[in-house]
Amino acid sequence: MSQQEKQLTKLANGSEKSSSLDSRDPVALQAAFKVSATTINATVSVFMAVFALAPLFWASWADFGGRKTLYLAFGVSSVMSVGAGTVADVVEPKNRAKAISYFMLGPQLGPILGPIFSLISSNGDWRWIFGFLAILGGIVFFLILFCLPETLSSKEGCRGKSQVSPSP
């Protein structure tokens, strides 16, 4: 496999923006941290393993502590498993299909946009990738904190739009 094919394979792989952003230039990360290529690749592998296994716990946590609390405590790692439920809770049934389709754009566009956004580090400064992710994460955190209602029906004052009211 040629060097160009290896680079294209690295750019094509990845599950979402976070996992594919930092895998664009592993050589720079190896030099900066003085570690082997295996160690750099292991960070992405561990990220993906946790990303795959953690959703097993999110649904029960969301039913116990609420979805908003889950998002604030664990960030976007829980969105794939309980995000569609949140969309269903806050969007009226007649608009729900369109809202779910917009929600599903995120995981579909991640592997495409991750390598494009990684051009931030094209001048060799890989730290901007993580700075970009931190800024984006901070914006999303405050949007969740101030704009997302809690939809857990057992919490007092929560009235999700997906709840069916009794007919007269």
From TrEMBL:
- All copies of the Major facilitator superfamily (MFS) profile domain together span 1-168
Q: Which InterPro entries match?
A: MFS, MFS_dom, MFS_trans_sf
Name the predominant localization.
membrane
State the name under which the record lists this protein. Answer: Major facilitator superfamily (MFS) profile domain-containing protein
The organism's superkingdom is given as: Eukaryota
TM spans (from-to): 39-58, 70-88, 100-120, 126-148
A GO CC annotation recorded here is: plasma membrane
Q: Report the membrane topology from the UniProt record.
A: Multi-pass membrane protein
Give me the ranges of the annotated region Disordered: 1-22
Where are the compositionally biased (Polar residues) regions?
A: 1-21
Gene3D superfamilies (UniProt xref)? Multidrug resistance protein D
